[in-house]
Structure formats: C-alpha cells, structure tokens
Design brief:
Layout: E1 3-6, E2 11-14, E3 16-19, H1 33-36, H2 43-59, E4 64-66, H3 74-84, E5 93-98, E6 100-102, E7 114-116, H4 120-134, E8 138-146, H5 156-167, E9 171-176, H6 181-189, E10 192-193, E11 196-197, E12 201-205, H7 214-222, E13 226-230, H8 248-260, H9 265-274, E14 281-284, H10 289-296, H11 305-310, H12 318-326
Parallel strand pairs: 3-4, 3-14, 4-5, 5-8, 8-9, 9-12, 12-13, 13-14
Antiparallel strand pairs: 1-2, 6-7, 10-11
Helix pairs in contact: 2-3, 2-10, 6-7, 8-9
Length: about 325
C-alpha cells in the first residue's frame, strides 16, 4: 500500500481508505448489501463482522478509516476495534463526520435512515458522541453531506465552533454531495475566518459515472487541501451486482476492459479514481473481507489513456446520476 502526506495536515494516509457506511448498520443503499451480512443483524454479530473487515483492511495496508455519526454504530465498532487490536495512535488516521443523524433504529426497512441537522447545537452534541467512541484516534472532523441548499457554510456559529476545534489540533474538512457538489466545494475553498481558510480537506464523489467534480478537486488540491474520494464504485453500480437492464451494455464494457487488464470490475473502477492526480485517498466501501482484498488489487491495475478513453462513455450528467442514486433501495 502506497502512502502520502494528506494536504496541510502532515498526516500520512494510505492511498486506499476504508469507509464504514456499510459496516455500522444493518441497512445501506449499496447494491446487494443484504447479502453481505447474511441476514444476521444482531448488534454483536454486525460488530464482529465489521471487525473482520477492518482486520482485512489493516492486513492489506489500509491506514485511513472514515466513519460518521449517521453510520449507525460505525464509530463505536471502529473504536472498539482500534482498542481491541491495541493499534498505536500514530499508526492510523481516523476521520469522522457530523451533521446527519442515524434514525433507522437498527431496522433495514425503516421509513427514514438519516436526517440532516447542521445546527451548532447538533455539532456540539455529535462532537461529544464521536469523541466518546473514537477518543484521541480522531484526526479529521468533517461536515457531513454539504449540499447546495444546506446553508451550513454561511452559519457563523458553526464555523466558529469548528475553528475552535481546529485550534485544539483537530483537522477540519467537509464532505460534499449532490449534482452541484463542485459549487459547494468552491464555497468551502472560500470559507475563511480571520483570513485563514477553515477547511483542511474535502471528501467528494468521483467515479466513472460522476466526474463533474474533477476540475474543482484539482483546484482544492492546488490550494493545499487534502482530497478524499468517496463512492468510487457508485454504491455498487460499478460492480457485477448491478443487474439493471439499462446498464447492461456499460457493464459489458467494464467487464471487457477488466478482462483485458486481468483484473476485476471493482478494481478497475477504483484504479480510475486512484489515477486522478488530485486524489489523496480513495475510499473502499467494502462490506466483506473478500471485497477488501479485491478492492486493494486496484493498486496493481495499469491505468492509461487507452483505458480512460474507452470508458469515457460511461459518464452521466450529474442530475441523472444523483437521481439514480436517490432511487437506490436500502437493503
């Protein structure tokens, strides 16, 4: 596993990180997620499963781990794993996020799974909760799911609270979402207090289907921010699990290109994200040990102009991509 220095933080991160969105709760929107937990949704069983995936990630060299308050018990499971394995604080980089709540009460078919709350009061409450689970392992604290209509980047009370945390040595980032994520990131780049940019890092969606944020991610990297890529497999749409009839031709193209490069579809899609010059960390959203190991082989996949040109036709308009994502069922 290759490593690099993460933006202005001085932290050393692995090029592949592990996001815990699918590991801290029984339901998620990744295609085929219901197969990964094998129907055993007892909290202790889900925690043991998460620990097994975290072990596999550690074994392949993953050193960046990303959680959030809205990922069910992800912070709790990550914290218990770090302590159980006695991993030195200096050997791992841990990020988490605030601004969304988990509301499914451990039910897969709940009417709502997350709700947004970017108020200063929720920031203070979720900070206490995150620290109780992750303690001094926490390095990076991010605003979760900042969309164009969110308004949090104009909330001075929130920004001052985050600046206070930054003054205590916590690095501050934002996670952007939606078809206008590039516009939101530009707003984040311009967010300053006392003449100093607040955000050290950004987490954004980029994959072979949704590439719209690429140019502004380069701007962020050039400005010195650390860049994390999320949803590089498009919540399973860029894997053979995607059996949507209207995607069959594109999946066939992906399979053909993967075969030509002697790799898997998931590794090929991750290799595309790893090849972007502005990407510091590309998150695997693996929910099984086998997925972790397959994802990690992306580091060995040769990515070149030929591959990029052959797969350029996969790209979707941002509005269409995000509409499709919004229809993915929790499972």
């Amino acid at each position: 596993m290759r490593t690099r220095t993460f933006g202005p933080t001085g932290l050393v991160v692995s090029e592949i990180g592990l996001g815990l969105a699918a590991l801290g709760r029984p339901g998620y929107i990744t295609i085929g997620h219901h197969k990964d937990l094998k129907g055993n949704y007892a909290v202790a069983a889900v925690e043991a499963h998460a620990h097994g995936v975290l072990d596999a990630a550690w074994q392949v060299g993953v050193r960046y781990y990303d959680a959030a308050r809205s990922y069910g018990r992800a912070e709790e499971f990550l914290g218990s794993w770090l302590r159980a394995r006695d991993i030195p604080r200096s050997d791992v980089v841990v990020g988490s996020k605030w601004g969304c709540r988990y509301t499914a009460d451990w039910e897969v078919d709940a009417s709502t799974h997350e709700e947004e709350d970017h108020t200063p009061a929720n920031l203070r409450q979720q900070w206490i909760e995150t620290r109780s689970h992750l303690g001094d392992y926490l390095c990076l604290y991010q605003i979760h799911s900042v969309a164009s209509d969110c308004g949090v980047l104009a909330d001075l009370a929130v920004l001052e609270e985050l600046a206070h945390l930054k003054g205590q040595g916590i690095h501050i980032g934002l996670s952007v979402t939606g078809p206008k994520q590039a516009d939101v990131l530009r707003q984040g780049l311009a967010t300053t207090l006392d003449g100093t940019r607040l955000f050290d890092a950004v987490q954004a969606t980029w994959n072979l289907l949704e590439r719209s944020c690429g140019p502004v991610l380069q701007e962020a990297r050039d400005a010195g921010m650390g860049v994390i890529v999320k949803e590089a497999l498009a919540n399973g749409r860029l894997t053979p699990r995607n059996d949507a009839a209207n995607f069959s031709r594109r999946l066939a193209l992906l399979k053909d290109e993967a075969a030509r490069r002697d790799t898997t579809v998931d590794a090929l899609a991750l290799a595309a994200a790893l090849a972007q010059p502005w990407a510091d960390v590309v998150l695997s959203g693996a929910a099984t040990e086998e997925q972790v190991r397959s994802n990690a082989t992306a580091l060995m996949v040769p990515w070149d102009t030929e591959a990029a040109n052959r797969l350029l036709c996969l790209a979707e308009p941002p509005d269409a991509y995000w509409e499709t994502r919004a229809r993915l069922p929790w499972n």
